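User: Can you recover a sequence for this backbone? Please restate the input before giving your answer.

Assistant: Of course. Working from this structure:
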C-alpha cells in the first residue's frame, strides 16, 4: 500500500486527486494538506509519496520539505522555470535519502503528452510555429506549464534540425499584441470563463497549415497520469520532467 500525502488537498485538482487515490488499488490518502496546514503532518501520517497541486508560490517550499525528508513527489503545479528546476535538483542532490524521486509533469493527461510529442516531431518540418493556450480565468500563471514545455520541445527540435528563424515582418507592436515567447517560440495566453485547459499548436508552411489541438474537458482526464506517477515515482530517483519518461517503459 502506497501512503500518499496530497498538498493542495482542498483545491480543484487536489480534491480530484484525493478521490482518485482513494478509489485506486494499492494506494491511500493518509494526509490532506492545504494552505494553513503543517507539512509535517505528511511525516506523522507515514506518507511515502506526496502529490502537489498547489500554487507556483508554494510548490518550492513543499519540494524542499519532501527532498529533506525522503518523500517522493509527484508534481502538477505549474510555474517551473529553468532556475526553479535547478533548485529542485540541488535539493535532491543534498537529500539525506538519495533515492528520493520527483516527477514534475507540466501535463498529466495522455492527450496533452501526445500533443507535445507530435508538435516536436512536426516543428522542424514547417516554417512557422505558434502556440495558443486557453484556460479558465482563475489560473494564476501564464503561460501554462504545458505551453512552456511545448515551446521548449519545439525550440529544441528546431535547434537540432538547424531550422531557420520564424518569418515575422512585425516592426511595430507597442502593446505586445504579438504575445510572449518561450525560447523564441511565440506563445499566446487566453483566459476565458467557461474554459478548463486547452491548447493549439499552429504550424505553417507555404500553402498549408497544420493545427494540433488538445482539450481537457474534465479534470478527471489528469488522474490516470497522476496515479501512474504515484505508482512509479519511487523507481525514478532524482528529478524527472515530463510524464512521457514514465510512459516509454
Ligand atoms: P486551486 O484550486 O487554486 O488549488 C490549489 C490549492 O492549493 C488551494 O486549495 C490552495 O489554497 C492550496 N495551497 C496554496 N498554498 C499551499 C501550501 N503552501 N500548501 C498546501 N496547499 C496550498 O488550483 P488548481 O486548479 O487545483 O491547480 C493547482 C495547480 O495545478 C496550478 O498550478 C495549475 O496550473 C496546476 N495544474 C496542473 C495540471 C497538470 O496536469 N500538470 C493540471 C491542472 C492544473 P488557497 O486557495 O487557500 O490558496
Amino acid at each position: 500500500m502506497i501512503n500518499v500525502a496530497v498538498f493542495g488537498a482542498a483545491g480543484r485538482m487536489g480534491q480530484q486527486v484525493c478521490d482518485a487515490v482513494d478509489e485506486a488499488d494499492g494506494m491511500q490518502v493518509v494526509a490532506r494538506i492545504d494552505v494553513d496546514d503543517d507539512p509535517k503532518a505528511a511525516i506523522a501520517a507515514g506518507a511515502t509519496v506526496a502529490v502537489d497541486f498547489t500554487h507556483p508560490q508554494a510548490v518550492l517550499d513543499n519540494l524542499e520539505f519532501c527532498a529533506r525528508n525522503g518523500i517522493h513527489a509527484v508534481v502538477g503545479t505549474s510555474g517551473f522555470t529553468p532556475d526553479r528546476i535547478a533548485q529542485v535538483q540541488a535539493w535532491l542532490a543534498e537529500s539525506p535519502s538519495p533515492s528520493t524521486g520527483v516527477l514534475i509533469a507540466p501535463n498529466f493527461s495522455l492527450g496533452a503528452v501526445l500533443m507535445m510529442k507530435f508538435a516536436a516531431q512536426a516543428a522542424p518540418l514547417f516554417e512557422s510555429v505558434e502556440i495558443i493556450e486557453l484556460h479558465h480565468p482563475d489560473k494564476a500563471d501564464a503561460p501554462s506549464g504545458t505551453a512552456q514545455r511545448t515551446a521548449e520541445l519545439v525550440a529544441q527540435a528546431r535547434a537540432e534540425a538547424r531550422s531557420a528563424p520564424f518569418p515575422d515582418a512585425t516592426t511595430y507592436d507597442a502593446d505586445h499584441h504579438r504575445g510572449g515567447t518561450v525560447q523564441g517560440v511565440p506563445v499566446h495566453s487566453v483566459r476565458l470563463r467557461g474554459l478548463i485547459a486547452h491548447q493549439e499548436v499552429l504550424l505553417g508552411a507555404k500553402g498549408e497549415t497544420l493545427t494540433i489541438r488538445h482539450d481537457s474537458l474534465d479534470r478527471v482526464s489528469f488522474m490516470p497520469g497522476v496515479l501512474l506517477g504515484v505508482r512509479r515515482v519511487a523507481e525514478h530517483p532524482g528529478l524527472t520532467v515530463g510524464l512521457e519518461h514514465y510512459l516509454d517503459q
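That completes the design. The chain has a mean pLDDT of 96.
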